[in-house]
C-alpha cells in the first residue's frame, strides 16, 4: 500500500480506527501483563525469602582464636 501523506497512513483507507484501536488495546494488554507478572514475581521472591529466613537456624558467633 502506498500512502500520500501521514494523514492517509493514519486513516488507513477508512479502517484506521480499527487498526490503531487494536494496536492500542494490544499494547495496553501487554503492559498490563508485564506489570502483573512483575508484581507476581516480586511476591514469589519475597515469599521464598521469608521461607528461607524462617527455616535458617540462627548463626552462632565464630571463634577466631585471637583472644
TrEMBL record:
Coiled coil: none annotated. The chain crosses the membrane at residues 12-32. Keywords: Cell inner membrane, Cell membrane, Cytochrome c-type biogenesis, Membrane, Transmembrane, Transmembrane helix, Transport. Residues 48-67 are annotated as: Disordered. Its main location: membrane. It comes from the Bacteria. GO terms for biological process: cytochrome c biosynthetic process; cytochrome complex assembly; heme transport. One of its GO terms (cellular component) is plasma membrane. It holds the Pfam family CcmD. Required for the export of heme to the periplasm for the biogenesis of c-type cytochromes. Belongs to the CcmD/CycX/HelD family. This is Heme exporter protein D. It comes from Craterilacuibacter sinensis. The lineage of its organism: Bacteria, Pseudomonadati, Pseudomonadota, Betaproteobacteria, Neisseriales. The gene is ccmD.
Amino acid at each position: 500500500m502506498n500512502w500520500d501523506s501521514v494523514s492517509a497512513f493514519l486513516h488507513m483507507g477508512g479502517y484506521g480506527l480499527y487498526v490503531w484501536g487494536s494496536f492500542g488495546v494490544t499494547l495496553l494488554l501487554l503492559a498490563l501483563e508485564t506489570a502483573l507478572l512483575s508484581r507476581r514475581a516480586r511476591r514469589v521472591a519475597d515469599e521464598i525469602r521469608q521461607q528461607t529466613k524462617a527455616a535458617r537456624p540462627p548463626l552462632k558467633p565464630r571463634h577466631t582464636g585471637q583472644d
